Design the sequence.
């Protein structure tokens, strides 16, 4: 079994850490995902010096992202998203509403949010009003009201 690899994160990575932190990951994850996408680099003295020099920029960028995420969260909480689905006479949907359906409805409303950031607690299989979570930032999650109507 291969040894884990020590890396320094160059950008914030969900479920792993913030930029500038040292992480230990599997070699395949480092080689195939983190390093090629520019999310991380091997922990060398040169990289540590560059990160120290850019620490203020990284923190300023993180603050800006947080403020932007909070602004989008406030708009999302006021938004009323409606999704039209085919349903039977007893309001049972033919299929279910997925995160991708919610992301498409958000795109029509002017919000560009990836479906991977949308969490639906339990499957939406009936007509009605539901609340779904939208993770905009590692510190900001918005509660979005989704109204499922008959198409």
Sequence:
């Amino acid at each position: 079994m291969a040894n884990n690899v020590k890396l320094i994160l160059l950008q914030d990575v969900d479920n792993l850490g913030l930029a500038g932190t040292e992480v230990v990951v599997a070699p395949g994850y480092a080689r195939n995902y983190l390093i090629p996408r520019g999310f991380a680099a091997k922990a060398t003295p040169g990289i540590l010096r560059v990160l120290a020099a850019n620490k203020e920029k990284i923190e300023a960028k993180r603050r800006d992202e947080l403020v932007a995420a909070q602004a989008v969260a406030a708009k999302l909480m006021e938004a009323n998203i409606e999704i039209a689905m085919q349903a039977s006479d007893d309001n049972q949907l033919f299929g279910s509403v997925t995160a991708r359906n919610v992301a498409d409805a958000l795109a029509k409303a002017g919000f560009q949010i990836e479906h991977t950031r949308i969490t639906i607690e339990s499957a939406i299989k009936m007509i009605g009003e539901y609340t779904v979570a939208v993770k905009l930032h590692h510190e900001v999650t918005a509660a979005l009201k989704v109204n499922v109507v008959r198409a």
Notes: Helices lie at 27-34, 45-53, 55-78, 99-108. The CA atoms of residues 7 and 42 lie 5 Å apart. The mean pLDDT is 89.
